[in-house]
């Protein structure tokens, strides 16, 4: 049976441990200050200007970008096609442990952000793009297998590990254990505004010392981190529920749907409505 290709330029597959996003020939103006997942962006064609932490430059078709959890990222470009892998820290660490690359108390990082000339990685990304662009049964099985191949390839060629005694895996991803209670409070209170004082009190720190430690540990401010958690939760609600966008906005702390839509577009490059329309429905039935 021939593959049934869709006409959509946006295709998104959401899994509990990863999200895959294939986007074709699009304009991109994307800024993300704090995300709990690893991100691998494979540029299939076109060019982007990028900034990751203190690294800036241009990437072209055939290049890829590796972004650690909570690394600030900015992208800008025209008429580019790409595949984005968003991988949970639990998934990456589990893979590293299973292949004997790291222990369970390790943190996996990469020795570079920009990768050029990695034909195998781009080939795997194109396989993901082809799978997302077709309507065939078993999509989730094939996607998971491809994600595993990508992770093993990256671990073999670009990863490094260090002991992470100060880090814990929480519902919100990797976090300094001294900040865990504050992050758990954020996670539990996504529907309301939290003051710096409330978050600091949860960590048994003064607001000054809490804000300084949080910035040092995560690379971002507490409120920027909270905003990222809200938008990640919004993605899940868009994918897994039939709630209206107005209802979802309220559940993640936005009283104004228009403010929510603006923040969501800034973080993902898509409006909530377009994101939901691009979702691949179902699992084994395509």
UniProtKB/TrEMBL annotation:
SMART domains: HTH_ARAC. SUPFAM superfamilies: Homeodomain-like, Regulatory protein AraC. InterPro entries: AraC_XylS_family_regulators (IPR050204), Homeodomain-like_sf (IPR009057), HTH-like (IPR037923), HTH_AraC (IPR018060), Tscrpt_reg_AraC-type_HTH (IPR020449). The keyword Transcription applies. GO terms for molecular function: DNA-binding transcription factor activity; sequence-specific DNA binding. The keyword Transcription regulation applies. Keywords: DNA-binding, Transcription, Transcription regulation. Residues 180-278 form the HTH araC/xylS-type domain. It holds the Pfam family HTH_18. It comes from the Bacteria. This is Transcriptional regulator containing an amidase domain and an AraC-type DNA-binding HTH domain. It comes from Pyrinomonas methylaliphatogenes.
């Amino acid at each position: 049976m021939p593959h049934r290709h869709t006409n959509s330029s946006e295709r998104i597959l959401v899994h509990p441990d990863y999200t895959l996003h294939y986007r074709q020939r699009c304009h991109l103006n994307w800024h993300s200050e704090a995300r709990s997942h690893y991100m691998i962006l494979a540029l299939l064609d076109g060019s982007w200007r990028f900034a990751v932490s203190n690294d800036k430059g241009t990437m072209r078709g055939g290049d890829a970008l590796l972004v650690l959890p909570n690394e600030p990222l900015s992208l800008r470009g025209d008429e580019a096609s790409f595949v984005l892998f968003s991988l949970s820290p639990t998934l990456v660490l589990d893979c590293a442990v299973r292949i004997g690359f790291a222990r369970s108390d390790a943190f996996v990082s990469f020795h570079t952000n920009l990768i050029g000339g990695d034909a195998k990685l781009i080939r795997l990304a194109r396989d993901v793009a082809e799978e997302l662009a077709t309507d065939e049964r078993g999509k989730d099985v094939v996607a998971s297998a491809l994600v595993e191949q990508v992770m093993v390839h990256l671990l073999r060629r670009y990863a490094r590990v260090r002991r992470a005694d100060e880090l814990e895996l929480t519902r919100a991803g990797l976090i300094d254990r001294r900040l865990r209670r504050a992050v758990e409070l954020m996670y539990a209170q996504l529907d309301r505004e939290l003051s710096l004082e409330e978050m600091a009190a949860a960590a048994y720190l003064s607001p000054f010392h809490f804000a300084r430690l949080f910035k040092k540990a995560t690379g971002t401010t507490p409120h920027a981190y909270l905003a990222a958690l809200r938008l990640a939760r919004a993605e899940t609600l868009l994918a897994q529920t039939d709630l209206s966008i107005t209802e979802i906005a309220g559940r993640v702390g936005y009283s104004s749907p228009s403010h929510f839509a603006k923040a969501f577009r800034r973080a993902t490059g898509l409006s909530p409505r377009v994101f939901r329309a691009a979702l691949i429905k179902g699992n084994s039935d395509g």
